Structures are given as C-alpha cells and as structure tokens.
Amino acid sequence: MQQMRQGGPPPSPSCSSTSDCFPLSPLNTAAAAAAACGSETSDEPQKHEPTLLSRMRSIVIFYLCYLLCLCLSVACVVCVCVWNSRWRGGFAWDGSALQFNWHPVLMVTGLVVLYGNAAVLYRIPLTWGHNKLPWKLLHAAVMLLALILSIVGLCAVFDFHNAKSTPNLYSLHSWIGIAATALFAMQWVVGMGGFLLPCSPMYLRKLLKPVHVWMGIGILLLSIAACISGINEKLFFVLKGNSGGVQPYSALPPEALLGNSLGVLIFAFGLVVLKILSNYEWQRPDSRPEDMAYTPVLQEENE
Amino acid sequence: MQQMRQGGPPPSPSCSSTSDCFPLSPLNTAAAAAAACGSETSDEPQKHEPTLLSRMRSIVIFYLCYLLCLCLSVACVVCVCVWNSRWRGGFAWDGSALQFNWHPVLMVTGLVVLYGNAAVLYRIPLTWGHNKLPWKLLHAAVMLLALILSIVGLCAVFDFHNAKSTPNLYSLHSWIGIAATALFAMQWVVGMGGFLLPCSPMYLRKLLKPVHVWMGIGILLLSIAACISGINEKLFFVLKGNSGGVQPYSALPPEALLGNSLGVLIFAFGLVVLKILSNYEWQRPDSRPEDMAYTPVLQEENE
Question: Cytochrome b561 domain: which residues (chains A, B) (predicted)?
C-alpha cells in the first residue's frame, strides 16, 4: 500500500534525483537542494526559491499530519484498552465475556492502528535517502504483526461465541470484519511473494502494484467500517439499562461517551492515513509510478 | 468534490489542450488526437500510438467503472426500498415504525447514492468538451437534492423517536450520521458561495478547493460508516427472534441476508466512487490543479 494515485503525469523535470527534490532527505541539505532544484531545465533562476519553499512547506505539513496520525494511534489504543479494562472488567482467555474483551482491543490495535502506521511508513521523508529494502522489510513485519493480532482478535470472539453456542459470522459487522481480515491475509501473502521475493518478475510487480494499493485502501476502509459498526453494536448490547446500576446507552453514561469517542477517533485516524497516502508529493520518489523500475527488490534495493 | 489528488507535478507537456489529451471528448476525434498528442515536444513519433492507446484504454476503463457505479447505485436503492416495503411494512408519516422506514431509504438514496453520483459527474469524459458551467450547476443541483433527502430522512427518525419519547443522537451511528449531514450542509453552502457566485475571488477558490475535496471525501466515508452501522443496528433491533414467526438475526433469515447485502453494496459503491475520484487521468482537464485559473466561474465558464 505504497501509493494511491495511479497513472498521473510525469514528474517535474526540474529535479533529477531524490536528493535534488527533497531537501530534508538525509542525502542532502536544504542549502544544497536550493542550488540543485530546477537548475537543469529552468532558465528562470528567480523561481527557484519559491519552489524550494513550497517543498519545505509540503514536508512540514507532512510531519504535522504524521504527528496527528501518531497521536490518534495512541488515543485509539488507550481508549479501547481503558474501555475494556475499566468498564468491561478486564481480560481473560476462558470463553467468558472477559475473553471477548480482547476482540476490540486486538482489532483496533492490529487491523486499524498498526495497519495504518505500516501503510504510511514509506511516506516519512527521513527514510527516503536510505536503502529501501529495510523499510520494505519493516512494512512487511509491522503488517504481519497487525495480521497476527487481528487473527488472535477473531479467535477471541469465535471462542466466546462457541462457548455460548452463539452462531458466528451472521451480522453485517462480522461480514465486513471477516472480509477485512481475509483480504488482509491474502494481501500480505501476495505482497510478500510479489514485492519481496527476488524471483518475482518485473511484469508481475507492475501488474500487482495498483491492485496492492487499492486492496490496501479497501482493507483500511473495511476495518474502519467494521470497528464503527462493532462499537455501536457492543454499546447497544451492554448498555441496556435493565440491570441494576447500569444506565442505558440512550442516557449517554461515561462508557457510552468513551465508546462513541473511540469510534470518532478511529474514523479521524483513517482519514489522516488516507490523506497521507493520497498526496503525490509525499510519495517516496523511487516508488512513484513513473520512477519505478520494477526490478526485483533484492537486486534493485541493494545497488 | 472534483478531485482527490493535490499538489502533484505539472502535466505532461505532450498535450497542450483538452482536445489534444482526450480523444473521446466531443471536441476532437480519435484520429485528430492521434496526430496532436505529443507532437509539440516529442521528437520520437513512433511513441505516439501507444500514448493514444493508453489514453483510450484509460477512458474505456473509466466507463466500465462508471457503469459499475451506476449498477451499484440502482442495486442500493432497490435493496433498501424492497427491504423497507417488503419486510418492514412500507411507509407512512405518522410517527410510527412506518415513518422510521423512510430513514434508511432517504439516507441511502440521498447521502450515499445521489451524493456519490454528483461527486463523479465531472469525471465523465463526454462532458469535458462542453462548457463547464451547466455541469457545475447540475453538480450543485444533485447535491442539493441529496441534501434535502438526507434532511427529510433525519426528520423521519427524529419524529419517530419523539413520538416514542426515545432520546435522539446518543448512539455512535447517530453521531457519525449527524456529522455527515451537518458537514454536507456546510459543504454545500460554502461550495455554492465559493465556486458558483461570480463575486467569489480567485484566492478564496484556491484556498477552498483542497478543503472542498477533502471534506467531500470525508462526508462520503462518514455516510458509508453511518449506513453500515445503522443497518447492523436495525437488524439487531428487529430480528430478535422473540416474537412469533420472526427468526433471529443469528439464523440469517432472508431479511438479514438482504440487509447485509445492502451494506456490502453500499461499501462497494463507496469504493468505486473513491476509485473514480482518485484517478488523476479521469479528472476534467481544466479542473486539474495545474490547469485551474481559479477565475470566477460565471466569467471563466462562458468564455
């Protein structure tokens, strides 16, 4: 899930390499970039300074968005953990409601927060001057961790349902959630084979890239829809107001406010990730469609 | 909500005008475009044919996506109408459950289907050769219709709740849904003032455009999340299996299958709309960031 835009026009001819175009990359300094950018084709030197300024501004805005993304990540994980430990009684693995509590925690942490952060990894300008291979491996590793947490999160709810003889996979929430996890598993295996194995041919990478990108975005949107419908469903289940001391959902007790706020935070996180992924200027330069050689990673990355 | 990509590189220098770049536009024929595209800067005439072919392919793929978008639109509206008329008893405006039935029908039709179709209006290549003003007016008119249907849909559920003395706006579904409608109303008013009034200055349009685009995408995603959580909630409410002859949701009776399928169709529709909006090649050429003069519409459009 490295880029969102496909089939765009070629890049500006004014910057010939990563270090020319991205002054905050470790390959270069801002002063050197100021001299290099635009010097090849432009005959209007007075225009260089605004170009550099706009690039610097773009990078500053990126880091603000990325900071927001990290803050929302922490807020989502803290919220879902506090909700399930403080209001839902904590955690266990015994088929009880305490085992169910792992489900929201692991799905939000894995399928949303880790997944979203792994997706935007290539966008961090400080990584652009480095060999791409370690970042590809980190992307694959964080995605694998996200996938494992999601699968354990599904096991938690299946065990809980089975212990209560409740059927699985009947609600729209479960359909959306299982589709997200199944597509994620498929995406990881195909991504691993297609983009990390040295034997993967160029034409296959070229064919896979747009599918990988769009499947990645689709999975993120499925995850967010599953989380929002799941939180809504859970709050209606547990806040019925018919047992002593429990206020109904409609009275908006503190637990309902926390759950609703978690949903809002998850949505905001998804929107920030989508914003980071869709901005062409924030793509790693050698991952842009017009720059990709599509040679096997283990050959191209270590040159 | 005319485009998704912002801040990209300048366009390829090989096509100097709309009619050069888009051979299926009424301004031009494929043969004329074949001669025109790339002729200004390229000194390799043998490369012209593949460029034209790739543009033709892009337009064919657009129309396939657009056809899918239209089919999903019809399927969503048919599904939600059949669900509420066949399984939920039909429609009325008397504070009863029959009044509530207007809510899903109007929200899906207005906030999802009409909204999504109005958003992709500018992408239809057959409109590119025409004056943009009528399409802007159509975009604004369909969005207004979508907004009115959404507001009436909200009135339906508020009336129903008030008649039963049920509180409003406490669930996560309602928070997401009201945020979508409120932002939509704000977006329409600001869009009308910013892009359709002749007195709106250039700098304001330039400032508004990326906000309009991102707010538009955010509203679509909010609408889809609201629909999926709402369908899920409604099916749990009505399919409890405790009244004679009604199977529980967990037994997946035909109504549950239809409701779940409606959720899947709405998600698929949203993904297709997002795909159409995010492809740079499918943007109306004079709406692309690098081509926009940002002069007041009523002046620029009628030149």
Answer: 68-278
Residue ranges of domains in chain B: 71-300
Buried b (16+ CB within 10 A) or exposed e, B121-152: bbbebebbeeebeebbeebbebbeebbebbbe
Q: Out of B172, B214, B280, whose CB is closest to A263?
A: B172
From B133's Cα to the closest Cα of chain A, the distance in A is: 26
Neighbouring C-beta atoms of residue B47, cutoff 10 Å: 12
Band of residue A280 on the pLDDT scale cut at 50, 70, 90: confident
Q: Which residues on chain A are in Cβ contact (under 8 Å) with B281?
A: 7-8
Residues 267-286 of B with CB under 8 A from A: 267, 270-271, 274-275, 278-281
Model confidence over B38-67: pLDDT tens digits? 333 334 444 445 588 998 999 999 999 999
Sort out which chain B residues have CB atoms less than 8 A from A224's CB and list them.
221, 225
**Chain B within 8 Å of A93 (Cβ-Cβ)?**
no
Q: Which two three-digit tokens encode residue A32? A: 């050197």
- A6 contacts on B by Cβ (under 8 Å): 279-280
Q: Which residues of B touch A22 (CB under 8 A)?
A: none
Whether the Cβ atoms of residue B135 and residue B300 lie closer than 8 Å to each other = no
Under CATH, what is the fold of the domain B71-300? Four Helix Bundle (Hemerythrin (Met), subunit A) (1.20.120)
Q: Could you give the CA distance from residue B121 to residue B282 in angstroms, rounded to a whole number?
A: 11
Instruction: Quote helix, strand, coil % in chain B, to nearest 5.
Output: 70, 0, 30
∠ Cα B213 B226 B5 (to 5°): 20
Residues 3-42 of B with CB under 8 A from A: 4-12
Sign of CA dihedral B170, A178, B214, B102: negative
For A:146-185, CB contacts with B below 8 A are: 166-167, 170-173, 175-176
Q: How confident is the model over B60-85, as pLDDT tens digits?
A: 999 999 999 999 999 999 999 999 99
